[in-house]
């Protein structure tokens, strides 16, 4: 059985190739960076356990764009995750949101998560520079596949690949991994901090994961979720960030 709204196994190779081919077409003469690599991430399951939190948060992805040096531990070198769906639904968007939160916590880089059906368009999730009040997530609605390909092209073109890999070279002492990337401007959020007033025994990060795990504990109960039969209606206010 395939995941909720996910692509049937027989169609999976076709969808996977379309993601890569679409990006190549959009890049044109601009070559795909040699230091980046697409991998099939379906067999990688991330689980986030936090002290004081009852449920772990689990997440997988479909396609993952990583820094090649992290091939052995791709979650640590993830730049972009792509969740593939047969059609876009509210449940699929919530799933992609959770995937963003879990994968950004594991990656060493500012991470971006997309969900698309390769037909109607998609949504991208990333973290904005914060104001000290926690993780600020940005939804960007991509209302057509032209917008999806354009978003992916901008993300790849905007990468300073040398900055992504310099800290991994033995001849580059004092280098550090970038905490902010452009196109779109996004950051590697940090969730440590003072104990929350809502629960003095939990740090801000622990409270954050508690909220996520509790909300996702009964994720299979989706009877009240409305499907997006036509993705033309934007499910979120475009360009409006929110806080966790």
UniProtKB/TrEMBL annotation:
This is Uncharacterized protein. Residues 175-195 are annotated as: Disordered. Residues 183-193 have a biased composition (Basic and acidic residues).
């Amino acid at each position: 059985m395939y995941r909720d709204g996910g692509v049937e196994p027989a169609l999976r190779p076709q969808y996977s190739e379309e993601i890569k081919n679409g990006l190549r077409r959009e890049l044109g003469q601009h070559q795909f960076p040699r230091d980046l690599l697409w991998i099939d991430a379906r067999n990688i399951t991330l689980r986030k356990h936090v002290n004081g939190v009852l449920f772990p948060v689990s997440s997988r992805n479909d396609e993952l764009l990583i820094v090649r040096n992290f091939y052995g531990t791709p979650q640590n070198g993830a730049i972009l995750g792509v969740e593939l769906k047969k059609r876009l639904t509210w449940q699929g968007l919530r799933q992609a949101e959770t995937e963003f939160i879990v994968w950004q916590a594991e990656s060493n880089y500012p991470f971006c998560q997309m969900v698309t059906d390769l037909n109607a368009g998609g949504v991208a999730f990333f973290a904005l520079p914060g104001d000290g009040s926690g993780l600020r997530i940005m939804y960007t609605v991509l209302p057509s596949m032209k917008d999806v390909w354009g978003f992916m092209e901008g993300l790849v073109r905007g990468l300073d690949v040398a900055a992504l890999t310099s800290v991994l070279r033995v001849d580059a002492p004092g280098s550090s991994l970038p905490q902010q990337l452009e196109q779109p401007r996004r950051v590697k959020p940090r969730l440590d901090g003072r104990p929350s007033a809502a629960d003095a025994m939990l740090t801000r990060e622990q409270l954050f994961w508690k909220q996520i795990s509790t909300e996702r504990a009964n994720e299979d109960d989706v009877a009240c979720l409305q499907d997006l039969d036509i993705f033309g209606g934007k499910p979120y206010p475009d360009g409006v960030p929110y806080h966790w």
